[in-house]
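Fold these two proteins, one after the other.
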Amino acid sequence: MHLQRQVDKLNSLMRKIAEFVEVAVDQAMQSVEGRDESLARTVIANDARINRMEIDIEEECLHTLALYQPVAFDLRYVIAVLKINNDLERIGDHAVGIAEQAIFLSGEPPVDVVPFNLTGMAGRVRQMLRQALESMLNVDAELAQVVRQSDDEVDSIHRHMYEHVESAMRDYPQFISQLISLMSISRQLERIGDLCVNIAEDVIYLAQGDIARHGAKRQQQPK
């Protein structure tokens, strides 16, 4: 019974950090799209809270492992929380990276020489993040598989962005700083997508005992 209370506590903490991280990504992209320096600085300031939450969750996981010595599903749950917690903190860091670029871009002339929909890419990544978080909170392996399958699309968009920016740098050297900044945002979004896949793979491990990462051989563990 004591272990179940601790698991419930971890679940509550994960819900909280997930909410903060999702808001950070949303606000970071809003600050880019709206050229809103104030909102971007809010994202940066709020990252300290996400960092503190990540440390608190890690300490709770270590406490759970040491005190209760969980096995089977409960052990997989604590291990998955440790890994997903770290991935969420890293997503928060990428939101900060996007916000920093938003601050720079807000003081520069808008650039419309790249035929690329950064907002569309951001929307796809936000959907991946929402689905990854939902799969985590509900231990939904099927939804986690959907997240994994979405990553190729985001990677393809990022590659096309790189090609467009590379061409634009040659044709419009006066915009090179802004183009580099846009490329950085695309890269940050691509990395958030990768971290969403990490979360999805840890959900599959939690639900099924299967290690899905890096094409690893699937090994069934005790339920």
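Now the second one:
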Amino acid sequence: MSVPSLKKIAILLPVPFDQTFTYQVPEALTVGRGDYVQVSFGSRTLIGVVWGEAEDVAEEVPAPAGEVITKTRAAYTLKPILKKKDLPPLTDQTRQFIEWVSQYYLSPLGLVLKMVMAEPSVFKERKRKTSKEAPALQPRVPVVLSEAQQHCASFLAERLNGFHTVLLEGATGSGKTEVYLELIKEASDRGKQAVVLLPEIALSAQWVARFERRFGEKPLLWHSDLTSAQRRDNWEKVARGDARVVVGARSALFLPYQDLGLVVVDEEHDGGYKQESGVFYQARDMAVVRASFASCLVVLASATPSLETLVNVEQGRYERCHLGERYAEATFPEVVLVDRREEKGGGVPGSQWISKPLYQEMKETLAAGNQVLLFLNRRGYAPLLLCQACGMRTTCKQCDAWLVYHKSQNKLQCHHCGHGEKPRTVCPGCGAEKSFVPCGPGVERVMEEVTALFPDARPLMMTSDTMTTMKQAEAMISKIENREVDIIVGTQVMAKGHHFPHLTLVGVIDGDLGLGGSDLRLVERTYQLLHQVAGRSGRAEKKGRVLIQSHRGDHPVMCALLVQDPSLFLALEKESREMYGFPPYGRLAAVILSGRQAPEVEKAARALAAVIPRVKDIEVLGPVPAAMSRLKGQYRWRFLVKSPRTLKLQAFLKRWRAAAALPAHIRFQIDVDPYSFF
């Protein structure tokens, strides 16, 4: 005897499982792929997405008389869909993108969906605003493009009809933004949606103001500073196709676009596009994947393209459009190297971190009524406090890291876990009183020197500590634009994207800061960062100058910056990476084990090493304690997996993970294409 199957649907839920769940569809309800539905999941009620029809799962059930009959499990255990939500369905393109991200990064399908369903409040019952179709973008002021800009704009517009990846390369101040703003208007005229990714929330304020001046309206914003209500409204506008232009952080890539026609990744080289928690993904790379599913153009814009992107261009995977000169009358700044080794005893009285040449240039710049930017990519006052009596360093209780001294708040803070405490007056190591002294400079210490050396100047410190919201960023940028600031002291939040016409001098306090360490991209990042910060100078008709203080003037990065020719170090970087099989010439994946008890984590790492699959051309390094062996109270061990570029690591990693019988309290993480090696 058989029992007919009821209609069953596979629902993907935003929970950390790599599977769909089967539910029954009530007779009165019609649902299709991509529909948002409400279901009961355990003791909770969740919103999920219809992923497709579920297959019948048959099981044998004993009949009362002992006869065995086969019935579908759905007839007995399936829960019904409770409600269908009044929202446009998730498009096939977005669902394919979710599956691709999950498979490539080996992350649970439900976690990737959770990134798409970013704002839970959007699904609550409420009175919805009347949907309005976004108006076409109309330039408020005419923009005259240079011949080079017009060429690039036309080149890119010809590629709006299908999937293409184009590197828009141009010097700082060459007008890359104006080129892709033309492209955004073209996509909007065709009724398509466009998304622009920016690596820093601080960049959003000036970018939005520029867009509004150009088109008389604001784009839709997506970043962490939005309120829950703003995120709800903006998410729904994207989902309904009412938002034509979206600008935001890397997570904006995962919004549920209805008709995506253009993706722009500004400052594509920036390491901030790599997500280091939850789903480990690289937004630049996923922008290319998303555009491929949407059959649309993706533009990667940068003055200092990543080595990965340059190699993709060389190998014909990407196209390139180049802007060689700065826009209008602006010229490139002159770069001068200040060798701190030659300044023994001859520095500025009362200054430890500002050299005599930089001090003199600052005086002349301020006297001319122009602005100065001092750059040091180190937050706080000093990277550590040291006991002069016994040498003890102040360290974090949760991490293997020094506590950074923030003098302005009179606190010590871990920049990895956020732990904070008051500075101690007595050394716990030797009992000496008031023996702790700050070692090394942070931006607060530089700011202190600036105030002492230039008491009449108006300084402003710009870091992620002082620009925690977009409103704060807008206020600070407005001050600089209105010439209410003479000297800016900042970290990497000031290094890219900003346009200040009266800023004519950039001083790099420590050009060597990023040249040491084991990160394979460290040298490349240092060049990119210093080149970008140098590009803040002389962006209008006034000539700019850049002074870089260094103890390593003969380093290839310094030589390249002096003559403004990245090929001086790129050739060496390519040769080194190719020799050792590192990206972009090979593939890497990190496997990280972590737990509360150090011996148990080590034991798990040894056990995992014993079941490494033997596969030709795949090399596994480790296990070793992580460079930061304790993070947020978790002890950590790492493996590094290497393979040729032609070999996909996912099958190997899945097989290895399946063979690992690890205790439940040991966390197992896979980071495909890692950017962090600590």
